[in-house]
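2024-03-11 09:14:02 INFO worker-7 job=invfold-0412 stage=load source=structure_tokens
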């Protein structure tokens, strides 16, 4: 995202931010519907549409973070990595519950939630810091 857009996004009021986020969600929905409605897309067309969807989703996340509606996980927690340096840990036996986070697929966007979850789970990460009850109510971007 350009620095100009970031600067303007921070100064938007709640109604403007809601309108922008709604428009982005509508754009993703429209693009997804177009892909489902037609069979004659080429692989290149589908790649372009998927890239546009990812751009909209990333912009939506950036706007949420810039306006305090979401929080970047890496800005608040340090992930413990395995011996190979991989942060993803499929086995959580023996790990303290309030240090475990679940990486989730949230409509094609990676998000993360405190604790162990099964639905939409991609994997787990463990942090050096424990999460709190307050962290359970926040929208986290991974």
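2024-03-11 09:14:09 INFO worker-7 stage=emit residues=142
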């Amino acid at each position: 995202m350009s620095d100009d857009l970031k600067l303007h996004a921070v100064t938007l009021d709640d109604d403007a931010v809601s309108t922008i986020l709604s428009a982005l969600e509508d754009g993703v929905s429209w693009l997804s519907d177009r892909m489902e409605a037609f069979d004659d897309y080429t692989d290149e067309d589908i790649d372009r549409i998927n890239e546009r969807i990812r751009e909209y989703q990333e912009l939506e996340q950036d706007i949420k973070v810039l306006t305090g509606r979401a929080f970047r996980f890496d800005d608040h927690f340090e992930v413990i990595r395995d011996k190979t340096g991989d942060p993803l840990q499929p086995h959580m036996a023996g790990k303290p519950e309030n240090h475990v986070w679940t990486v989730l697929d949230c409509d094609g966007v990676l998000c993360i939630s405190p604790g162990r979850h099964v639905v939409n789970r991609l994997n787990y990460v463990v942090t050096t810091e424990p999460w709190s009850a307050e962290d359970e109510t926040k929208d986290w971007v991974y």
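2024-03-11 09:14:09 INFO worker-7 stage=report msg="Residues 3-69 form one domain."
2024-03-11 09:14:10 INFO worker-7 job finished
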